[in-house]
Amino acid sequence: SIAFYPTQQAFIDCDKIYKGLTSGRGGGKSYVGAYDFLIHGKPGAVGLVVAPTYKMLSDSTQRTFIELATKLGLWDDNKFHKTDGRAMLNNGYEVLFRSGEDPNKLRGSTVYRIWADECSLLKEDVYAVAIACLRWPGGDRLVFTGTFTPSGKEHWTYRVFGDATNPNVALFQCSTKDNPFLPPDFYDSLLLQYGKGEGGMLRAMQELEGKFVCVEGAEWGPENFTDRVWFE
User: Fold this and answer.
1) How many angstroms from the chain centroid is the CA of residue 207?
2) In the beta sheet, which residues pair with residue 95?
3) pLDDT at residue 230 tops 70
4) d(Cα 92, Cα 225) in Å, to the nearest integer?
5) What's the CA gap between 140 and 230, in Å, rounded?
6) DSSP code string of 106-127
7) 60-93: pLDDT as tens digits
8) Is the dihedral of CA 211, 213, 217, 220 positive or negative?
């Protein structure tokens, strides 16, 4: 069986249209994203998996996806067409693997579900184009999920997933130390090094705790400059 800690399970169980999972490095966000995508797949439908670059897609996202799909009995190498980035799972759910390097290449797709891995490295145009692809006929759970380490409060992912006023959005946050499968000293070692580098403990909050912070270390962060401070 595959077990997840409470925040991860809450993300998997969430039925919001747009849901994000932030995590520190090594927190297992891609693994959870792949599992969420796989178990909610619909036989006969088409799903889309997006990574920032072809290199990240092949070296990381696809590897995690295939490993997990194999464990779940859904993967067959003979049904994976590498040249056009397409796989048919054993339950009849078709998956398209795409890079986000050229957002316009995502246009025209009609899909049931989207998983964007490391989406804080994607341009906002990719998100804008991708969500318009969620129009599968008769789809009862059309969902865009994003798994990522935050890139600050200026980034589009914070505006989208951090919007508590949007009833269609949910954001879940995990720490690196929540992952029990990492080496025992992994978290503390990185915490020490981040504390000595540029951005100091703010960078540690981002890279290890998966929190949205202003790593630049500005004395006055963007949260102090809301619309109410501007006037004609």
Assistant:
1) 15
2) 47, 87
3) no
4) 50
5) 43
6) GTT--BSEEEEETGGGS-HHHH
7) 999 999 999 999 999 999 999 999 999 999 999 9
8) negative
Tokens matching residue 157: 């992912």
Q: What is the pLDDT of residue 11?
A: 94
Q: Which two tokens stand for residue 70?
A: 């194999």
**Alpha carbon distance 81, 28 (integer Å):** 27
Helix (H) or strand (E) holding 137: none
Which two tokens mark 87? 């796989």
Structure tokens at 72: 């779940």
- Exposed (0-12), middle (13-18) or buried (19+): which is 68, by Cβ within 10 Å? buried
User: Which of the listed ranges 4-8, 22-26, 87-91, 130-134 does the model predict with the highest average pLDDT?
Assistant: 87-91
Tokens of 189: 């070692």
How far is 33 from 218, CA to CA, in rounded Å?
33
pTM attached to this predicted model: 0.82
Q: Which residue has the tokens 């998997």?
A: 12
Length of the chain: 232
